[in-house]
Amino acid sequence: MQYRAWFQCINEQCREQYPLNTIIYRCKACDSLLEVQHDMEALGRRDAKAWMKLFEDRYKSTQWPYGSGVWGKKEWILPQIADDNIVSLYEGGTNLFWAERFGKMIGIDNLWLKLCGNSHSGSFKDLGMTVLVSQVKQMISEGAPIKAVACASTGDTSAALAVYCAAAGIQSIVLLPKGKISIAQLVQPIANGALVLSLDTDFDGCMRVVREITKDETIYLANSMNSLRIEGQKTVGIEIVQQFDWVVPDVIIIPGGNLGNVSALGSGMLMMRDLGLITKLPRIVVAQAERANPLYRSYLKNFESFEPIEAQKTLASAIQIGNPVSFEKAIRTIRQFNGIVVDATEQELSDAAALGDTTGMFNCPHTGVALAALIKLLKAGKIDKAEHVVVISTAHGLKFTDFKVNYHEGALDFPCNYSNKPIELPARVDAVKEALEQALEKRRTTNG
Length: 448
Ligand SMILES: *Cc1c(COP(=O)(O)O)cnc(C)c1O
Ligand SMILES: [Zn+2]
Hints:
Helix content: 25-40%
Shape: globular
Structural class: alpha/beta
Radius of gyration: 22 Å
Bound molecules: pyridoxal-5'-phosphate, zinc ion
Number of strands: 13
Number of helices: 17
């Protein structure tokens, strides 16, 4: 095989290496996180133009598995896996659209939304899970004694794990914080045959339990501490640049919880730069909910220290995480990318999501956090109106209908500035006509 990848410890003093078919999540020598390292010299023997052409030829084709946005870049992801072991649901290749009207409203011309939630399980987690479950299938085919794959989740990881495992015929186990995820997210792993364990704790509590359970090597850990997931998620940045014909945007904004995704975004960008596909790097903005903002607090102290917090309840439930596993990788990425961390209150994230929806988006609350961050950075002059900005939308809005219903009902504990309540009327033409006249007049005045 021409190309090679392996696990490598992120600690610069250690750099211990392990083969990708080792059941390992942290360095055995120093307990640091691992990352997948590629034989860059071998990859560099194919020139940048040839890589671009290869990726373009495969993009969204039906040439299995290369039409997948992840597996179209297989040589950069898991070069040694057998195609027969790839578990793909045609992930990636998601819509990237010009948010013209929303941009105008908030004062920016060149704003784009990358809809990672338009994916099989409805969130960007599919990008990483296809890689992890494929590697598990490969290991099982080589005789590894894996009986099941387990994760702790704020909802979207479990949905993705359950669906990829179902496609592969592998048992999944998901640990969920009871009452802290949406109904749509809960029903996904149930429907896909996962063993669903609902624990009376928060995400960080579920994470502690799953780490203990997966010390038994027959239960494989699927959380993003497992760096296989980062390999798939890193395609999001590569795909964005490819969609812009290899032009790098100025700024990319991403919501962050466990902080694997931001690290992945950075990793894909660096790989493109190191292999000569791009020469500049974007600035990366991490957006956190104010009620779960340990990275933001650390950023304010110039990252001199990082302290886990107890996350408070937030509408952005998928990022309600106080003790993020990948904080070291995230800090490294923010430093490399001249990054910024911003947080958003419950009202800011809800209003931003709702305002976006009035322009034709359909935002999940986490995307609301990212849009609120953009609004704040524009106001503060930290992003210029002429800059080319991409906001990563991480999940489909339909997973969070309870959030939207409560907002539009005005049932949240703050003013919901863009709420749009249904008008209840008797089924009489005159009543409808009268209501329409009044309502349309009101809209004309508020829309200006
Ligand atoms: C997981 C998730 C995030 C956060 O990603 P991290 O890698 O945990 O930082 C953001 N939005 C949604 C919808 C998610 O499911
Ligand atoms: Zn180490």
